[in-house]
Amino acid sequence: MHQIVRREEMANGNVILNEIEAPYIARKAKPGQFVILKADERGERIPLTMADTDPERGTITVIYKVVGKSTELFKSLKEGDSYQDAVGPLGQPTHLEKVGTVACVGGGTGIAVLYPITRGLKRAGNRVISIIGARTADRLFLEEEMRAVSDELFVCTDDGSRGHHGFVTEILKKVLEEETLSLVVAVGPVLMMKLISEMTRPRGVKTIVSLNPIMIDGTGMCGGCRVLVDGENRFACVDGPEFDGHKVDFDQLMQRLGAYQSEERKSSEAHRCRLER
Amino acid sequence: MAENEDLAEKEREKNRVAMPEQEPEERRRNFEEVPLGYTPEMAVAEASRCLQCKSPTCIEGCPVEIDIPAFIRLIKEEKFDEAIRKIWEKNRLPAICGRVCPQETQCEGRCLLAKKGRPIAIGNLERFAADSAREKGLKDLSPKPEPSGKRVAIVGSGPAGLTVAADLLARGHQVTIFEALHKPGGVLVYGIPEFRLPKEIVADEVESLEDQGAEIRCNTVIGRTITMDELFEEGYDAIFIGVGAGLPRFMNIPGENLVGILSANEYLTRANLMKAYQFPEYDTPMPKGKNVVVLGAGNVAMDSARTAMRLGADSVRIVYRRSRYEMPARAAEIHHAEEEGVEFLLLTNPTRFLGDDEGRVVGMECIRMELGEPDASGRRRPVPIQGSEFEIPCDLVIIAVGTGANPLLTRSTDGLELNRRGYIVADPETGETSIEGVWAGGDIVTGSATVIEAMGAGRRAARSIHERLTRDLQPSKSVED
Ligand code: FES
Known about the structure:
The complex is a heterodimer of chains A (about 280) and B (about 475). With about 280 residues, chain A is of the alpha/beta class.
């Protein structure tokens, strides 16, 4: 059992932060790695990239968006409640080294994944320009934390309620023109990561993306997480979750992420019925 | 006199007692166990057929060397509790073995009566003895051994790991089993379906190990959560690696990443471990298909096909590139699948998958094959017949063409010698690896094999570990003296 020691709601309750007791994972985890959580006996195994870890306290922090039955169930857990299962750290850590000037771009809950990577890149001695975006101002989070680990921070919202009125890609375009970037890290919706990779490819700027495909075991056993990278199948849970954005087949990834859409709808409805009863 | 014996023999030959089963029409749509088990009368009748050979050949066919004639005689004498104790001397997991061992190629294959096509149903009798003990709540009461003070880490809670644990506990060593998934049992839990091996039985066997003192730590990936080196630092005196093969193989043909194409590992793990066949009561969704294709013809393929049938498919087809004769699955499994309406498309190989605009699989292009010269495995090599391509419609494809070695643990462990295919190199007699104090056994050494073979490897490794641990004990003893 893994107790929730801190719980915060962000973005109008659409995004939840959980700090969870998991001493073994906390001891080992590095930026970029993920855990798989399962709320109860009947629950699904949900992979979440860690936003933070505290080896001293023996805790890990995850931030997730409430999007379906399983994350609704996660959301219903209060401080003091527990996850039945937590396993990790899984996947490869981010390669953190000094390369010069880097841009860290995050959209939506991707910002949670981006945060420890940004901090790591900053600590490694890079000049960090960060660009974060969300649909509206009240859906934005970790802004101050991101500012603290960036040399420059740009904020965008789709509706203009905070920062630049528009998309992170528009800011990145300007940054790409004005700066000589050695690396771009992009984490967010698949479409955002795809667009960014397309922008950086002609300029030859190395681009790392963090993928979150459908997973079951997280140890290379099921192959459900396979993504086409440079024409070859790779398992995101073992070889990833980070890959070279110029080589990822994003269109296929989007299709594969939609594999259980109709089931998920059914499941969410069944869940709501149960809650209402 | 001689005549009488002759008669008795004839009688025995005639009546191999069949185990009652759920009717195919009924069972093909439910997940309950297919064979229903012997009644005591049936068990006694079957046990009475045993010739009680002076030098029994059946034992040679048993990887864990159960004293088969002895336990069968006890069943015949209706001493069921003693029968299970006799089995427990050699096998701590009889309820599982009685169900999933390929007896026809092992003990029953060596039975003298097998020559006449009617071997004693040893597997059925083993299952009967185990089940009646379970129903009675009978526990293994062998006296608690003197604690040795030694601690052994077992990586993986599948058949190999569980056997090592049982054997070492019986010799007084402390064991901790590390499991990557959230439930112990390995392939017994994620791979083999409920209708062939009820999960309750696995849970019971695991629980009895815990009763005997085994510590089980789930959600612990050795190589990630804890490394092998750290296990030694934590003070374990020996480590056994039994992580299974567990890397799904794909076909590597166009269209394989379309939605609706899964490895058998994923399909079965969803169904068995995550209980997705009970979706939405359980949260993990199960991919459903009207027209299902399963690639491969081993036991895993049969399990996948029969699962798909139970989930309501209109048609389930096994597509296999060789002929019926080469199918690696157990005859009983093929028979069960056929009875349940699974079709077989033999001498057929897929060449590519066809998808719709949304990237979902809608069909598969195949080519017909014919058998040519024997290949390295001794089986005739299938060769494609030029121009014989044809398409079959399907909306779910399960790939069950075998597994490879999962590199997660091996890659993170320095000094562990692997073979060309990534499996751990271990002494076949003892399970010793290239690292001092580390043993290995099961599929991660041999590649995909059977549950009982993994148990046999576990047994040999446990023996070797015990010898090493007690040899180490000797000097310290003499110092005390
Ligand atoms: S999640 Fe199963 S192989 Fe990656």
